[in-house]
Specification:
The protein is built from 13 helices and 15 strands. With 394 residues, it is an alpha/beta fold.
Length: 394
């Protein structure tokens, strides 16, 4: 991750021996490769602040010592040298708990996926039951891949709701009300027997975009997750932004209509009351023999159903209006939209862009890129992996 707080470049170091400086610079490069995977020497230079000559010399030493390998590639149409760490026996675990699912992924420090698992969970699932399901999935994954538990260096975990990082508890307003007040880290460490890091799922979705996605060079990015809840993860100056207590990006609780419906957070007219998938399902299920699913909404939208397209358009405009306030404040380079509606593509992106342009400062609205995430519903689990890998090497 670029510009991580606490990370120093050679310019920040006190005068010392050349060998100490070289070791420090080598650690910077290895940390970047572990977190981002294969990178060009130019990308390593931008990420660490080291000169290209320094990068080249250290990479040669890493290769000579059997720690890395290089191969030719292209970057922006030019020839470049790509650097990869050689495979490590260690792996990290990423877990994404959702309103009705748990997803698990294992990967090596070089961002090579080893295994992925998914299990459906009942709506309203209890923390203890869901954690037990995740533990069972992990045992299955380790058994089938032959990876020893001792090689799992830790786990990152995503929860769909605001988390107070001072207490590691989910607070009021979460999609999982049964988890409110639960010390997630304590329960997971007891069940999984490894170090645990927990974060909001939207924050992890944002982290995934700059580690696993195609936006690795983005310095200022917003990841907008639209699902049963609506949240935003912020990347500012190349690093996740957490604010004072870790509760950021709660865009789903921005007031859109003062006289709107009462939200689960206790306020009235929040964005989630007009643009979440739950609201879309409620609106479109009227008159239907059974409630629709997200998959039904996507299918009907692609087939051109007028009512479905209207509901999506209204929701997208509301989302665009809310994200305009964020854009006016931080002026992001790019807004990446994710969540279960990702396959809608331009059907959802077009009204979001219209809402953004209508309500943002003109220069910001016109210059902010709005795209769909290429990581689909895997983004949060992949971001959880990145979280675990980054902290295990700091």
């Amino acid at each position: 991750m670029n510009d991580t707080p606490g990370r120093q470049t050679s310019e920040n170091l006190r005068p010392g021996s050349q060998s100490a400086l070289r070791r420090h610079n080598e650690q910077l490069i290895v940390a970047e490769l572990r977190e981002r995977g294969t990178s060009s020497q130019a990308e390593l230079s931008r990420a660490t602040g080291l000169s290209t000559a320094t990068i080249s010399n250290i990479v040669k030493a890493l290769c000579a010592n059997g720690l890395a390998t290089t191969h030719p590639t292209t970057s922006s149409g030019r020839r470049a040298v790509a650097v990869s760490l050689l495979e490590s026996p260690d792996v990290a675990l990423g877990i994404d708990f959702g309103r009705s699912h748990v997803r698990l992924a294992l990967a090596s420090p070089g961002l090579k996926l080893k295994d992925e698992r998914f299990a459906a969970l009942p709506v309203g699932h209890l923390a203890a039951d869901s954690i037990a399901t995740a533990a069972a999935l992990l045992e299955e994954a380790l058994a089938e891949t032959g990876i020893s538990r001792s090689r799992v260096i830790g786990a990152g975990v995503g929860i769909p709701g605001p988390i107070d990082h001072r207490t590691n508890t989910v607070i009021r307003g979460a999609i999982l009300p049964q988890w409110v007040g639960v010390n997630i880290v304590s329960q997971l460490e007891q069940a999984l027997r490894m170090p645990i890091l927990v974060d909001n799922d939207a924050n992890l979705g944002a982290l995934a975009q700059i580690t696993w996605g195609e936006h690795r060079s983005a310095k200022d990015l917003v990841f907008l997750k639209i699902g049963s809840g609506i949240g935003a993860g912020l990347i500012l100056n190349g690093a996740p932004y957490y604010g004072h207590t870790g509760i950021t990006g709660e865009i789903g609780h921005s007031t859109i209509f003062d006289q709107g419906l009462v939200c689960r957070c206790g306020n009235r007219g929040c964005l989630e009351t007009v643009a979440s998938t739950t609201v879309m399902i409620d609106l479109l299920s009227r008159g239907e023999p059974t409630p629709l699913t997200v998959e039904n909404i996507i299918s009907r939208a692609h087939s051109g159903d007028a009512a479905t397209l209207r509901v999506i358009d209204d929701a997208g405009m509301a989302v665009g209006r809310a994200i305009a306030n964020v854009a006016n404040m931080i002026n992001p380079e790019i807004i990446v939209v994710g969540g279960p509606l990702s396959s809608l593509g331009e059907v959802l992106l077009a009204p979001i862009r219209r809402g953004l342009i209508r309500h943002a400062v003109p220069a910001i609205g016109q210059d902010t890129i709005v795209v769909m995430s290429s990581l689909g519903d895997r983004a949060e689990a992949l971001g959880a992996l990145s979280l675990a890998l980054h902290h295990s090497h700091n």
